[in-house]
Design a protein that fits this description.
Layout lengths: L17 E4 L1 E2 L18 E2 L2 H14 L5 E5 L8 H14 L5 E5 L2 H6 L2 H9 L2 E9 L3 H7 L5 H13 L3 E8 L7 H15 L3 E6 L7 H7 L8 H13 L9 E4 L10 E4 L3 H13 L15
Parallel strand pairs: 1-4, 4-5, 5-6, 6-7, 7-8, 8-9
Antiparallel strand pairs: 2-3, 9-10
Helix pairs in contact: 1-2, 2-4, 6-7, 7-9, 9-10
Length: 295
């Protein structure tokens, strides 16, 4: 059977995927807002352990079509390891259509374009990249370990390799003082990257993180639903997407107050107009009740 270590995390769109814990934890693990892997020591799991789990999963559910490689930084593992893992998955699951993983900017920095191309050809076709912000002071505060120029550079490597990117932006990450700069600079970075998917989450302090400690000291602004809607409106209005055929946008993560969806640029005017209506008449917003939100 499959043996998971600690709490398991995956993107919402991987709900019906087989989750395979190729690595434990996150090799970077310094982001101020993230509590997901604080209790784990990063390591790559032995291939023979994973092979046994793949064999078991193939017996139980041979019709698997999607696999997500956990934990937070599987792409940092050696290319030879990942290629062998992908080969075993292809043999085990004849209907396999896609393999995906989280990709930190640090992992993207060390992966060569040729390596990512080989991994894409072997089935690893989608990376989830947490941009969080395109605003350099905000990125520094979040301890992402990169500035916006480096984020763009490493993401373009994945694009050059033909890998699809699903990117995330943290609404509220700039506090009130940099809310507009955060929104507009995040759009600037997304425009440069031209990802296939982009989604928003609301920054939420989690106990056990540096961000939580900042919040306890009163250094983190809790933006209101209207302030977050204004920030989201500025972000969406500044996007210039469509070079790769269109970008799927979602704000349906449980942390958001507003659940919006569309394809950009086709639905951009509609989404901005919907947010303008909310800002003009908050009763039109249909904000999620606080008790329904979460991480």
């Amino acid at each position: 059977m499959i043996r998971y270590e600690g709490t398991l995390y995956r993107p919402p769109s991987e709900a019906d995927s087989l989750i395979l814990q190729a690595t434990i934890g996150c090799s970077y693990n310094e982001c101020s807002f993230c509590a997901m892997y604080r209790e784990k020591r990063f390591r790559v799991r032995p291939i023979d352990e994973l092979a046994r789990e793949i064999e078991w999963a193939a017996r139980v559910e041979p019709r698997v079509r999607k696999v997500f490689l956990a934990d937070g930084d599987a792409l940092i593992a050696k290319t030879s390891f990942l290629l062998e893992l992908l080969a075993r998955l292809r043999v085990a699951f004849p209907n396999l259509q896609r393999v995906s993983c989280y990709a930190s900017p640090q992992a993207l920095a060390v992966r060569k374009v040729e390596e990512m191309t080989a991994l894409r050809d072997a089935g690893l076709v989608l990376y989830y990249l947490g941009i969080e912000s395109g605003d350099d002071p905000t990125l520094e505060r979040l301890r992402k370990g990169v500035d916006s120029a480096e984020m763009i550079r490493v993401a373009k490597k994945a694009h050059e390799a033909g890998v699809k990117l699903s990117t995330m932006i943290l609404l509220g990450a700039g506090n009130r003082v940099r809310s507009l700069e955060h929104a507009r600079n995040s759009a600037r970075v997304v425009n440069a990257i031209q990802p296939r998917f982009v989604s928003t989450l609301v920054m939420t302090p989690v106990e056990g993180t540096p961000l939580w400690n900042e919040a306890e000291r009163g250094e983190v602004d809790e933006l209101s639903p209207l302030e977050l809607a204004r920030e989201l409106r500025e972000f969406l209005a500044a996007l210039e997407l469509g070079e790769s055929g269109g970008t799927v946008f979602r704000s349906n993560h449980a942390s958001n107050y507003l659940a919006l969806a569309g394809t950009l640029p086709k639905d951009q005017a509609r989404l901005v107009a919907a947010l303008d209506q909310v800002l003009t008449d908050p009763r039109a917003g249909r904000f999620r009740p606080e008790w329904t939100r979460g991480l």
